[in-house]
Amino acid sequence: MCGITGIIAFEKNLLNPKSVKQATDIIKHRGPDDEGFAFFGNDDEVITAGGKDTPSDVWTHQSPYQPKERIESVRDSFQVGFGHRRLSILDLSPSGHQPMSYLNERYWITFNGEIYNYQELRNELTGYGYHFDTRTDTEVILAAYAYWGADCLKTFNGMWAFCIYDRIEKEIFMARDRFGIKPLYYWIMPDGSFSFASEIKQFTILPGWSPKINPQRAYDYLIYSITDHTEETMFKGVFQIPGGYYFKATVNAINPDSNGKIILQRWYDLKYNKFDGTLEEAATEFRKLFKSAIDLHLRADVPIGSALSGGLDSSAIVCEVNNILRSQGVEHLQKTFSSCSNDE
Prior knowledge:
Blueprint: E1 3-8, H1 17-25, E2 34-40, E3 46-50, H2 56-60, E4 69-70, E5 80-86, E6 100-102, E7 107-115, H3 118-127, H4 137-148, E8 158-166, E9 171-176, E10 185-188, E11 194-197, H5 215-224, E12 238-240, E13 245-250, E14 265-266, H6 279-297, E15 304-307, H7 312-327, E16 334-337
Parallel strand pairs: 3-4, 15-16
Antiparallel strand pairs: 1-5, 1-11, 2-3, 2-5, 6-7, 7-8, 8-9, 9-13, 10-11, 10-12, 13-14
Helix pairs in contact: 3-4
């Protein structure tokens, strides 16, 4: 699952590293395997840090992004701060630690999600001269952004919420997957600083948090039972980056409006493709797409888990997973779970 945190201080303000740590601690459940932090100053200084949940082998791993300081000792002299909690899925080694850097520490990322076609993209980018030191999809995202810019999003097959910081251009690039599978919220703090997070409750421990209900969104939920249909949330002043959108700006020119909302760019719009074939042809096409999607989702360095609801969709997925794993001789790798309640 993973969880991400970030604060960009307003103009000449300096962020408090403790705030980044606290906002990351509160989502420990999203990433029990590792924690990491990175801080960037106006003078191009970079400090990487770890905490009590950072594994010992991450501290000793030789990489440009390994933690070098304890988070408790990082001083208040930075404009940009990233936090990350890791749930290890691909490349379980310390190489998968985040925040991760690329191209001589120019690009830095905190990332939640998975890019399923990362192997194909890595092979393509290798052909363009890019080098990879890890087996992670995280490093592939950074290389893809270095080569394609914002258009890299169109090459990804997966689910994601991430923020990249370009130290040379002093830019942040935040993006969410096509349908918003992975969450990404932001809130402008009272001092004008910009904060982003995987969960709204991360904002509740930041300086100046004063929750106010968003009456219209509460009304929509209570009357129509709908949520996430706009950029707004139940909290006034807290917004989400919708699925299929990204945000790019220099750290000194984020420029939210009077309500705390930023201007986003749409990069994906679902197109309707009419199918003119027979029912049998439709079934054949669906089966091909269904199998292909599941096959990509099985890329992991940990056992596969499936949640069974008892319906046709989850049952079909589990059966197809079993077929694929059985053909590979590893059907024992799938683990299935059901969630039940005594309260009807």
